Amino acid sequence: MGKNYVDIENDHGETLRYRKHVNGRGLIANGAKVHPSAVVEAGAYVEPGVHIAAGAHVGRGAWVETDAVIGPEAQIAPHAHIGPGAAIGAGAKIGVRTHVGSGARVAVGSLIGDDETIADGESVATDRRGLRLAA
Question: Which SUPFAM superfamilies match (predicted)?
Answer without folding.
Answer: Trimeric LpxA-like enzymes
